[in-house]
């Protein structure tokens, strides 16, 4: 290391290669030696900053916050659905599986739940590929083309 310093002191103009070799080898010890010898001006000419190797690290404390819960942000039907899921009802809309037909006779019709006065019902009649759709109103049972009876049952809204 002293050979580099002696070459630097002897030369009237230090080369970029010599300065880069001096600064790459260890800014801590070599930088201190260069500062003691008064070679700060040489480092500054070649674009090497005086305190380049001793940059301070600044940290700020970060508060660990949690994301807000869905229940705090939810409103309306979505909030009621979340409340039902927390209570243990994983299928509040009864959409996981289709309803199966009951006996379907006039005195024992298939009961269709609804929170409204009417509901659209599709009947999969035997031998048909597509369902037959009908509008089921509150009141008397309604008969499908295949002879199956349906009745609307009033249930509370979610």
TrEMBL record:
Superkingdom per UniProt: Eukaryota
UniProt keyword list: Metal-binding, Oxidoreductase, Zinc
GO molecular function list: metal ion binding; oxidoreductase activity
Positions annotated to bind Zn(2+): 123, 125, 144, 146
Coiled coil start-end: none
GO biological process: mitochondrial electron transport, cytochrome c to oxygen
EC number: 1.9.3.1
Any single GO CC term annotated in Swiss-Prot or TrEMBL for this entry: respiratory chain complex IV
Record's protein name: Uncharacterized protein
The organism of origin for this protein: Drosophila virilis (Fruit fly)
């Amino acid at each position: 290391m002293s050979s580099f310093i002696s070459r630097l002191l002897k030369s009237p103009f230090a080369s970029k290669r010599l300065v880069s070799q001096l600064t790459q080898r260890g800014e801590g010890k070599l930088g201190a030696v260069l500062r003691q010898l008064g070679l700060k001006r040489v480092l500054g000419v070649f674009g090497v900053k005086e305190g380049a190797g001793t940059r301070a690290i600044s940290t700020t404390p970060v508060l660990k916050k949690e994301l807000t819960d869905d229940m705090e942000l939810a409103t309306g039907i979505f909030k009621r659905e979340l409340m039902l899921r927390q209570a243990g009802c994983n299928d509040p809309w009864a959409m996981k599986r289709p309803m199966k037909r009951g006996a379907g006779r006039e005195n024992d019709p298939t009961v269709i739940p609804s929170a409204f006065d009417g509901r659209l019902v599709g009947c999969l009649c035997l031998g048909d590929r597509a369902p037959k759709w009908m509008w089921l109103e509150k009141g008397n049972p309604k008969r499908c083309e295949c002879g199956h009876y349906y009745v609307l049952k009033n249930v509370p809204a979610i």
